[in-house]
Structure formats: C-alpha cells, structure tokens
Amino acid sequence: MKLLWVWILNALALMAVAYYVPNIHVADFLTALVAALVIGLVNMLIKPILVILTLPITILTLGLFILVINGLLFYAVGNWLQGFVVETLVAGLVGALLYSLFSWLLAAIFIEDKKEK
Predict the structure, then answer these.
(1) How far is residue 74's CA from residue 91's CA, in Å, rounded to a whole number?
(2) Domain parsing of the chain, residue ranges
(3) Digits of tens for pLDDT over the chain (117 positions)?
(4) What is the CB-side half-sphere exposure of residue 8 using CA atoms within 13 A?
(5) Ramachandran region of residue 28, left (φ > 0), alpha (ψ -120 to 50) or beta?
(6) Are 58 and 51 in contact (CB under 8 A)?
(7) How much of the chain is helix, strand and coil, in % rounded to 5?
C-alpha cells in the first residue's frame, strides 16, 4: 500500500514540476502516473549502469555529475513518453532537481515512517 501512495505522490510531484518549469508539460494526471512509473524504472535499472560507466568523471566532479545523469534521464523519459514533454536539457536538469525535491517533501509529509525502537 505504501508503494501505491509513493507512486501517487511522485505523480503529483511531476505535475508540480510541470507547473513551475515552463519547458516541461504533462498532459493529464494519468500521463503523470505513467511518467512517474517510467522515471522510477529508469532510475532503478539504467541509472546504476550510467553511474558505474561515468565513475571517473563523477569522482573528478565530486559527485556533481550525478545531477547531469539525473537530468539526462529525465529529459530522455520526457522525449520518449507521449504526453510528457521536456523541451530542453536545461529543463531536464531543473525538472529532475525539482522532481526530487517535491517527491522528497511530499513523502516526508504524507508517508508515515514506522520505525520501531
């Protein structure tokens, strides 16, 4: 059940990103749900491979190149899905940063973390 709530909150975060960044467009909430799912799958499957392949430049930039990887993947998903448009790479970078921030903020507010002491 928690996974379903996280998915819905990520879709809401994606809608918020589309509202704040002028070069990112989401057609409707169903498209945001699909895009949030695809972004999650891409981050789970492709991102680790890219991080390993770009490890030397990531070390040289003290980890900042991971932001570029996030932006590229966000931009790629925006070009791949119909109804979710990321027009420029800069919009992808800004969108990825805001998407991470909004997702974290919404999860911190609405998802109850049950840690037993």
Answers:
(1) 9
(2) 2-110
(3) 888 999 999 999 999 999 999 999 999 999 999 999 999 999 999 999 999 999 999 999 999 999 999 999 999 999 999 999 999 999 999 999 999 999 999 999 988 777 755
(4) 7
(5) beta
(6) yes
(7) 75, 5, 20
